[in-house]
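Internal tracking record. Fields below are filled automatically when a chain is submitted to the structure queue. Please do not edit lines marked as system-generated. If the sequence contains nonstandard residues, flag them in the REMARKS field before resubmitting.
Queue: standard
Priority: normal
Entity type: single polypeptide chain
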Amino acid sequence: MKRRGRPTTYSAGGLVSRGLTHREWPPAWRRHDLQATYDVVVIGAGVHGLATAYYLAANHGIRKVAVVDKGYVGGGGSGRNTAIVRSNYLTPEGVRFYDRSVKLYERLAADLNFNVMFSQRGHLTLAHNDGSLRTMRWRAEVNKLEGVDSQVISPDEIAELVPFMDVSADTRYPILGALYHPPGGTIRHDAVNWGYARAADALGVEIHQNTEVVGIDVEDGRVQGVRTTRGHVSAPVVVNCTAGWASLVSELAGVRLPISTHPLQAAVTEPVKVFLDTVVVSGTLHVYVSQTDRGELVFGASTDPYPSYSMRGSLEFTEELAGHVLELMPSIAKLRVLRQWAGLCDMTPDFSPIMGVTPVAGFLLDVGWGTYGFKAGPVAGEAMAELVATGRTPEIIAAFDLARFQDGRLVGEKGAAAVGH
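SYSTEM-GENERATED OUTPUT FOLLOWS
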């Protein structure tokens, strides 16, 4: 019998040694040999691909699913974003869609039995001129009509929420007001990826890392399967969830997309005592900032102005970002930047995603997310799983079909998504 008493303690070296040698901890998800046939192949092991696979198994009982990725779980945009979640968009279609995602995020830890650390700390979008303030009022009214909590607040109310913000009238970019969205906040992106991967694996989904798709077989207008660096796989349904690489992967199936890929850079400072409770965004200054529980300030900006697949940071970004952040919070001037990084954003002409069917039967799209794909992961996965299982496009994503570009049915979200967040 094990005697009760004080818990065992280890030195730092002992913890490292035990972590390297301990053999009893099971892997969060398993490795598998690549089978010759699956019911569904999902390309991309980020939050969208993993969520699609999870909801296929959890909601519809479709478990013979392979998620393939040329890298590792969450190694693309799902692990390089700044983890902001919100639903205060501009169009009714966008508001309904992202609000459903927020609702799923609110219960995700319980659904996956994995702490995803969702912190609904509030989201502020600043207005620096009359035009921006009108847009904020417009967004607030659309949000309210869709049942989403958003309101325009004054500089004095902003100062109460963010005491370190310079709301004086004699600044270069005076703050006239802000759209305040209490349900918005941040979440741990790695926890979301790992939680979905673990839960999908437990339901029988196979996750294949380091498995690059190099070809997509199409015959008589219908997808037949994929060719990978580990062999050929047959499947009647293939779902493209590859974000910045979406247009290249779709071309393998003969489907051209109106998408351009742009780098999006971000940076993080040294940790300091927590003083910023909300997420702060300025579309005019092209900057947004939040603070982690560890005290780091996380900064981001808009996408780089040129198409590229580069994920290297630049000094130009850091200098411009620092200048704009100090316009808002001059008192943080002495904080040191620890690191910066970049991810790839798949930008569409109307700043809305492309979801649903394509001219190739069985080849489906969940792409075109630009700078706001992570916040849409749960609802996108839920909707794509329903489409695969039923063969019918769910109403919540019907407006985001590929055919809208040909038909002139654009869903213009630039007014709510022009800043990379």
